Amino acid sequence: MLVSWHGHACVSIEFDSYIIVIDPHDGGSIGLKKPAVKGDLILITHDHFDHNAMNTVAKDKSRVLKMHYGETLIDNVKVTGLRTFHDKFKGKRRGENTVYLVEVRGFKLAHLGDLGEIPSEDVLGKIKEADLLVIPVGGTFTIEPSEAWSLVEKTKPINVMPIHYWIPGTTLPLKPVDEFIKHVKDYKVVKLDTNTFDPTLYRNSVIIPRPP
């Protein structure tokens, strides 16, 4: 099981040469490199330009789920889409956002997309104790760093991977990951020298891959 961070909110999961890509961007429009990955399954949490560049990562026969709510099984991958909002006003400012719970081989990854609110207890219950919680921490367009940490405390994941924060080159006004790190308690902060890692090798860690 390999997880890779492709900058911003774009994350891929690879197992048995099968690749799932979540929230691809096109690189140039946000000042980053284009994701160097092609997905068999592409998941889009919401239809904003920095999350929906599916053509950037598509193969000839890629399957795409865009803002898909409910449970579905695709190629032995269980995907559950949970309805949330991109802001604190029930979507009136930025629309809806899909939280995806991806389950494969007993491994659970929760990708929160551009979550802009503290979700309902129902949503929190479904993502609780995920093996890897992929959570936006850069604020401005999403929850703030302190709110992101409060969600970690509420959901108690095995490991945490922050996304959607400022890195060199990013043209979006986001906070750096250090603003999130200063809130971390009871988890080890692991900064990697690669953008790819095996999440099953970690426990109680905040995993920070190197920007691609």
Question: Roughly how much helix do the residues carry, as a percent range?
Answer: 10-25%
Q: Strand percentage, roughly? A: 35-45%
Number of helices: 4
Q: What's the SSE pattern? A: EEEEHEEEEEHEHEHEEE
Oligomer class: single chain
* Overall pLDDT score: 94
Q: How many domains, in number, for the residues?
A: 1
| CATH fold descriptor | Metallo-beta-lactamase, Chain A
Based on DSSP secondary structure assignment, what is the total number of beta strands? 14
Major sheet size, sense and barrel closure = 8 strands, mixed
The CATH homologous superfamily is called Ribonuclease Z/Hydroxyacylglutathione hydrolase-like
Shape: globular
Low-confidence runs: none
CATH level-1 class:
Alpha Beta
Using only C-alpha atoms, the radius of gyration works out to 15 Å
Structural class comes to mainly beta
How many angstroms does the end-to-end distance come to? 19 Å
Give, in spatial order, the strands making up the sheet with the most strands.
6-7-8-9-10-11-14-12
Any idea what the CATH architecture is? 4-Layer Sandwich
Characterization of the model:
- The structure is a single chain.
- By secondary structure, this protein is mainly beta.
- It is globular, with a radius of gyration of 15 Å.
- It is built from four helices and 14 strands.
- The model has no long low-confidence stretch (mean pLDDT 94).
- An eight-stranded mixed β-sheet has the order 6-7-8-9-10-11-14-12, with helices on one face.
- The chain starts with a strand and ends with a strand.
- It has one domain (2-208): 4-Layer Sandwich (Metallo-beta-lactamase, Chain A), CATH 3.60.15.
